[in-house]
Structure formats: C-alpha cells, structure tokens
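User: I'm new to structure prediction. If I give you an amino acid sequence, what do you actually give back? Let's try with this one:
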Amino acid sequence: MMDLKITGGEIVDGTGSPGFSGTVLVEGDTLHIHRGDASHIKAARTIDAAGRVISPGFVDLHSHGGLTIMREPEHLPKVRQGVTTELVGIDGNSFAPFKTQQELHRFIELDSGLNDSPPMPADWLSTAEYLRKYDGLGSVNIAYILGNSPVRIWGVGWDNRPATQAETANMKAVVREAMEEGAWGLSTGLDYPPGSFADTQELVELSATAARLGGFYHTHTRASLLKKGLLAPWEEAVEIGRRSGIGVHLTHYRQAQQGVGSHLDYLGLVERSRDEGLDVTFDCYTYPYSGTRVTIMLPQWTMEGGPERLKRALRDPLDRERMKRDMDHGHLGYEYRFAAHEALESPTISPTRRFEENWLTNFHLPHNKKFEGHSISEIAAAQGKDPYDALFDLLAEEGLGISTVGLGTNAHTLPAFVAHPYGIVASDAILFGDMPNPRTYGCFPIVLAEFVRAEKHLRLPEAIRKMTSFPAQRIGLPDRGILRDGFKADIVIFDKHTVKTRATKSNPKVFPEGIPYVIVNGKVVIDNGRHTGAFPGRALRRGRAMT
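Assistant: Good question. You get back a string of structure tokens that encode the predicted 3D arrangement of the chain. For your 547 residues, that looks like this:
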C-alpha cells in the first residue's frame, strides 16, 4: 500500500517538458509516476488534484531563512509558496565553521540585519554540527553553502588586509573540511565585511579547492569595482571561474534602475561566458524591491575588527563625522550604488535620495515600532534629527539588526531576466521584521500568476523548471527537483488559473492563494492551505545519500 496517491492532476515534472496525465504515488519519502488506470493501487490517503498542476517542490537558491527557521520552524512565508528546499549560507554570510562560540556570536550580531538571530546561545561550531540542527527541525529541507566570511575569520580574523600564504592554506583546509561535512560550494558577499576584504587571488584559490570537490561559486559581487565599468563586478566573478575552474552563479542578477546601462549588457556577459565554455548561471528575484541589512550603507572601515568596532563608531562623535563624509561621497554597498541612476556618472550618490527611497524594518524596542516601514528621512523628520544621526542612533539603540528595503531593480527589464534560459528564480527573502520585502511571501507564485498566466513571458513548464530542476541541478542535488521514479517526494499542487500573490509593499505579510498542498519528503506539510504540524525537513548534505 502506498502512503499517498495524487490523482487527476496535470503532472508538470520540472524538466521543462509539457504536462501529462498520470498519478503520483508516494511511498515513504520516495515518489513514483504511474501512467494509466491507477484505481487498483491502494493508498493510505488520496488527494484529488483534478484541475490542478502537480509539480516538484520549489527550490530557493537564495535564502536568508537559515537562522529564522530555528525560531519559527513552520517557516510559513516560504512553505506556503510551495518552497520545499532552500540554500542557505548566501552572500558570504554563513554560520559554520567557527573556532569558538564567541566568534560565532560576534558574526551573528554583525549580520543580524540580513540573516536574523537564532535562539541564543548558538550551540554549534563545525559544519557537521550546524547541519544536524536542521534534521527534523522544520517544514523544508536545507542545503548549505559555505560563506567566505567565516572562512576569512578563521584564517585571517576581522582585519582588512591580504592573507598570507600560510593563512590562505589554512582557509583552503577550512573549505575542504566544510565540503567534506556537507557544504555544496562557496558563497561570497563582497560588500559585506569581513568577506569583502578578500582579494581576487584569495577567492580563486578558495574556489579551486571547492571546485575539486564538486562545489560551485555563488556570488554577491563587489560594488567597489563599478568605478572600472558597468560590468566589472561580474567580470571579476567570471574571471574567478575562469582561473579556478569552478562553476559561477551570479546571484540577484538584474539591471538597476533605468539609466544604468542596458539589461542586454548584463545578459550578454552571461551568454558570452557560456559561449567561451564557462559554467555561468544567474538567479533573480521577481519584485522590483531590493533588501539587505542597513549596515551595508556604512563605510567598511567601521567593521574592521568586528561588531564591537562598529558599535563604537556609532557612538563616537569623530567616527560619526567621518562616516557622514564617506557616505556623502558614495562609500556604499551594492544595493545602494545600484539604486541611483547616477551611480556610474558621478562619484557622489545623493544622500537625500538614498534616505527617502528605502524603508526600514525589524525594530524591537516598543517606542521604535512606529518606525516600521518608514524611510530614514521620515524617521529623522519625526525625531527632528539629521538623517545620518537618526540612522546612527537607531542602530546604536536597537543593535545591528535593522533591515532596509527599497527600489533596486528596473521593473521594465525584470521579465527579460526572469525569462532568460540561463536564469533561475530565487527569493533573496529576509523573513523577519513587520514590513519585509513583499517577495518574502510572493516570489514564486507571482511567477505563475504574472510572468506566466497574465503576461506570458514564460510557458508554465519552463517557469517550473526555473524553480525546480534548474536550481536543484545548480546546487548538485541528485534526487530532487523533478517528478521522476525514485526521486524524493517534494511536491506542490497548485491551481494555475487562480494562483496569485497577495503580498504588496504596504501589506507584505500575506500568504498567496491557489497553493493548497505542499508535500516534503513524502509528508503533507500544507493541507488545504493549513500547516499540518509536520516537520519533515532535513539537511541535504553534499556527497551523502539523501536519506
């Protein structure tokens, strides 16, 4: 007897092929496809999917939910979208391995505006210990990619200087060990200290180590290279792939606001790289809003030495004046450079514009809750302060965990990235705060509703491929992302005629419609739109059978 039988639906298997009729059978955590009459097959439960699509569960190649899920294992913003597997450790900011709990806690604090904080104290150090936290923890599976920030902290510390030969050898050993314990590759966030302190040669050597073990390079590129040209940050990433032999994945890849080059320049870089024989892919999110930790706005020297240095700078009058001067002259991170039309034409990015166009979230103190969803300019006006002082004071008072959201993508050219054959759909979603980016709740269903059904930028089978088998292939998952005999039973059932997102800028924390069932490792997690209380998620480790 089967554990589950799904009948009557259109099976769109994730390969990009057209849908077909059949029955999906689940036995334990494994699925089988049956064509023809299945009335004789008995199952403990049958789901009638007539008029609906049965597809693989969605694989999110850019998740910031790895620590949030430790506090909120239901993981409703993602599993309600149909997400069944997430890759964490993105943007160079991962949480293993560390030598001491003190170092781990320091890094969690510095990065808390991007990746949240787990229940404290964090009780792991190695990659193996960290991955064990996810076995049976939550609603979805977790795959892990090693960030270069913990690698650099281990080998060099928090200083902004080149690594010595001995330190580089030590870091390469860290990469080998992490991958042997289950990591799928190396990620970088070259606007986030201390990983941003790594030079190109260091990244080539670490990437070559990861490549020898079958890993890939997942990169948030270096904005400071923009002074060398429109595509220079991504050209560095491609060069790292060329010199190390590693597959390169460009994350949250898109055109910025109108007036900064052409989207064809970006897509052309990927196409030329692949024509050269390089393994280059990209992902993009499906909303025009960017999002990150607000500390990315601050000059990187404030983070040399770790979070303690930044907290001193926020309170020191001389450091504050120095920060203001640097920020006036464009010493900013990735999202903010690209939010301005004049990013390439002028060394200065208007502080007024920067403070007006982005809103803040994730306040904890009761008297600051009223600032959720408001811009720095609005908050400063309400407090009667200079915008810089308002920002510095809030970070000093609240801790470093404030997030920011704002326009960071040209909505007119976004469909070209979503529809491109080398592009993957990924959320880059930050799951905390009262006013998060609306893509946190809507990244995947908006593809089905807007990019497929309404605007017809994509056929449904190709859209599903971009959310299932393609990201699974990019990670290296051997038995997920396709509905095929013997693969793991990660399944989503949705109504292609009614599925839609309801999340908006002003009302972002709203679940989508038209996705009644989500199954993870053979267990029904979302049943007619409700969480069942099942937590079948597990860590998916490189080099180990997915058992």
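You can read the tokens as a compact description of the fold. Here is one thing that stands out. The two ends are 21 Å apart (CA to CA).
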